[in-house]
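How a chain folds remains the central question behind the approach discussed here. This step matters because it turns folding into a mapping between discrete strings. The sequence in question and its structure tokens are set out directly beneath this paragraph.
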Amino acid sequence: MKAIFYGLRNNHVYLVLITLVCGTVVLWAWEKTPFLTTVLPPQDHVMRLSPVMPDDKIKEKQVSVGENISDHLEKEISPSTKEVSDVEQVSEQKNSSKQGEKKNLVAPSSSVRTDSSVRGEDNNNLTSHVEKQACSYAKGKWVTDDGRPLYSGFGCKQWLSSMWSCRLTQRQDFQYEKLRWQPKDCKMEDFTGSKFLSRMKDKTLAFVGDSLGRQQFQSVMCMITGGEQRTDVINVGKEYGLVKGRGAIRPDGWAYRFPNTNTTILYYWSASLCDLVPLDITNRSTDVAMHLDRPPAFLRHYLHKFDVLVLNTGHHWNRGKLKANRWVMYVGGVPNTDRKIADIPGARNLTVHSIIKWVNSQLPRYPGLKAFYRSISPRHFFNGDWDTGGTCDNTSANAAGMEVLQEESSDDLAARAVKGTSVKLLDITALSQLRDEGHISRYSIKATPGAQDCLHWCLPGVPDTWNEILFAQL
């Protein structure tokens, strides 16, 4: 019995020694063999997958210990993200080969780089796409261009209101017509009517907003036609209910179609972007419910017919306008009782966020629709306002400088409202702020003295640039 016992004890010692030797070999192999680190990725690499997939998908498809993480990403990552990932991996491999080292490719994080630092010699399309995305049209400078203006200030009488055609007034200085906006990070595509109509073939562009939106509408009509008379253009206002009502000075908007490309351009007047409903339709002097949280009926009825929508509001948000129009604030279908909303900035804030939220909610139903919210057009009243002697007599374009370098929009409300949505910001505030010499000012058709217009712009002029940026963003 003792012999057997001592024999087993000796065998046990041998087993312990063998186990220690094997363990040492395994640990040494773990540190020296790249294959093992590839098969068993660190835990932090696995956690990087969670932002790529929805939570319920992660629960269904957990990464197994023996699964190659790059294979897993190839199954789950979106195509656009995968392309950028491939470019980054190729770049990393090239850098590694130069150093004579072999490195494992790390799974990309949830935030994929989309700036101009991404480069790929074998993927020119991706590079050009990334550079295009990096262009900020709101940053840049005004430069002189003898090829301007894009249409005659004496012409375009078919579309342009005479009160905004400064060539027809007593104004003698027209250097403002020669300025062109040059973005800082890219060259903006030259606008031509034929290219615009080709890009908008079988499509409808709708401007919905106040009188500055109307100026942008008239500007684009002049830009497309070069200010020339066009007998082939069809008035299709009836299709959108844009007809002059009984006793009205003008219709609520206009709509025109270019038959060669089946392109429709329209404007609808909605100064507040609210749904306005008369409280008593039988009484012409009735109060009007101003539904701050409801889009205009025009948008609800015709949004499905639009391919490009440009919204704006701003300068009608004051007590004088609300009182003159007999607008009464409503929220949730009833008169507003919230003091914070009753304040004009609070009411405007609610409306802008509401309209953008509503349009964004409709985009999945109309995947071809591109929606823009245009930031506010700046006023340049000095030493007063409309009715208190405010002026804008400056004729020098560089009085306030010629360049915009700021990263953030000057219209904070607009920037915050579109953030996180698929509605794009048409940011024109800062670049227009530099152009105080471009307003109607004291000039008029009849040369009568009176209040200066330091809100609306001479055409051709600054609104043409808004449309060039819109064209570039399309």
Summary: The first strand starts at residue 140 and ends at 144. The chain has two domains: 33-129, 137-473. Confidence is low (pLDDT under 50) at residues 1-9, 32-132.
